[in-house]
Amino acid sequence: MPRPNTRDYEQLFLHDLPLMDTRAPVEFAQGAFPSAHSLPLMSDDERAQVGTCYKRHGQEAAIRLGHQLVQGETKAARLAAWKAFVAAHPEGYLYCFRGGLRSHTVQRWLADEGIDYPLVEGGYKAMRRYLIGVIEQQAAERPLLILGGRTGTGKTKVIDRVDACIDLEGLAHHRGSSFGRRVREQPTQIGFENALAVALLKQRQAVHGALMLEDESRLIGRLSLPLELHQAMLRSPLVLLEVPFETRVDTVLEDYVVDLCAEYVGAFGEEEGRRRYADYMLASLDRIRKRLGGERHGEIAALMAAALEAQMSHGDLSLHRVWIERLLAQYYDPMYDYQLGKKLDRVVFRGDRDAICDWFENYRSSPSLPGG
């Protein structure tokens, strides 16, 4: 028996059901859902032609043109791709922008091939609207606990150990600092918001009580946190991760030297990857030149350049510790102290990684605590 079409957007996202996106490639590139695959009915150029025809001559003429553009070998190739998707994902659904002509056309053409495949009623627009509502609702209703701490304390290591959390930097694919850009590009703003909403939806389903988020500015790289969520974060209790200075240096060395260099090498090969990594690190330091001051920037840049040379020539990482220590003590820590001074009234706990993880489990289940 054929599966019916659906408007149950919650179940689609909770279970990461495969979604066949029949919109044009340019629409998909602007923003998509985490489990969506781009298998368009029309190319960007074909869609533009049909759109122009619709404006000038109306819907019937546009439909005729669409059928003229997508026929013969073109239609056969797209049908083959849709059939392969259906075979690989029999539990999935298809959709277009509004759940209208394009998705019904694909559904009908598949039916002509003997394949019944359901569509998402309301299409992308309705699903997107639903996810925006999830963010707004969770920002208004879900108690949050914000994890703060100096640069290098390893906040992500705590986030990774906690069930009731969302890794905002992981979703944004950016570490949130001047050196935070990764090799792979960040998602689009819409794609980031969609993924964040799905993560919030899954957390709403899985766990109750407070949700832990890392303390972030509104921007993570070039992506912006939804306003309602960020405002809720600014009102929420704050827990501070505190670890020894040497541990912080170790963490920065691991994240921004060992791991990030390995990302570049993995993406571009040994020689080109190392060269790009070194250029990126020096360029990242240049971006904070004004805030460092010319003299201090020059000193740290020379230390970084020497460390990169030692790393590239004979694998010695020890010199990196020198510029990391200088940058933490002279730039990041004073900036952190200034920012913390404005939110001390929100601090409810301080501790190391183990202490915070243990405390948070009790905090989440205690109705007597803020956000519990």
How does this structure look, described?
By secondary structure, the chain is an alpha/beta fold. It folds into two domains: 121 residues, Oxidized Rhodanese, domain 1; 231 residues, no CATH class. It has a five-stranded parallel beta sheet, sandwiched between helices. A three-stranded parallel beta sheet has the order 2-1-3, covered by helices on one side. A two-stranded antiparallel sheet has the order 7-8. The chain is globular and about 70 Å long. The two termini are 46 Å apart.
Quaternary status of these chains?
single chain
- The portion of residues forming beta strands comes to 5-15%
The whole-number mean of residue pLDDT values reads 93
Rg of Cα set: 25 Å
Q: What's the SSE pattern?
A: HEHEHHHEHHEHEHHEEEHEHHHHHEH
Number of domains: 2
Helix content: 55-70%
How far apart, in Å, are the first and last alpha carbons? 46 Å
Q: How many individual helices?
A: 17
Low-confidence stretches: none
**Silhouette:** globular
Number-wise, the strands total 10
Strand order of the largest sheet: 5-6-4-9-10
Largest sheet: 5 strands, parallel
Q: What structural class should be given to the helix and strand makeup?
A: alpha/beta
